[in-house]
Amino acid sequence: MFGIADYSAFVLAIIVFLMIPGPGNLALITSTSKGGLRGGMAATLGVIAGDQVLMWLAVAGVAAMLTAYPSAFHAVQWLGAAYLAWLGCKMLLVKPGDAPVLKMRPQQFFRQTVLITLLNPKAIVFYMAFFPLFVDPKRHLGLPTFAAMALTIAALTFLYGLAMVLLTQRLAERMRANPRVSRWLNRLAGLFLVGFGIKLVISK
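The structure corresponding to this sequence follows.
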């Protein structure tokens, strides 16, 4: 299909990758718990937008540039780690009555999640390594093949995000009834963000 080798395996691989815990999943959960359905869906669109940028940068060969110039790669890596750690520290230090770290307006959830997604430079390298695995050299159509891959990933991410948002929304309604639980979950989310930031720097 569109020059993609084993399209069903490609879809399955994307679903598995979406389910792996990471900053994107955490952003979806946090945005939904703070901003409800609109906040969660705005965050989902932010993940999709950020992923699309990274995918097309990978297709354009940015991954090769980052590999050729390690200092540029590490600079973006440190920037992404610092941003995640900064968000996490703010969530850890927030006090009752303070304004939420992730703002309540959907467009802010969108921008926040786009930044979290874009500031993971390893995703570019991942897409650069992942796409060739499912390209059929004999039926490859060039740009249309990569476009089909990108659209498939966007559609699957939307459906996955919708499921996550609906599930989190139901749980969030119960959490709001208990401020103490909500506060501790907020701190736990902050701790994970700091951890993701550290992992982004030290992982090989």
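The first helix runs from residue 7 to 19.
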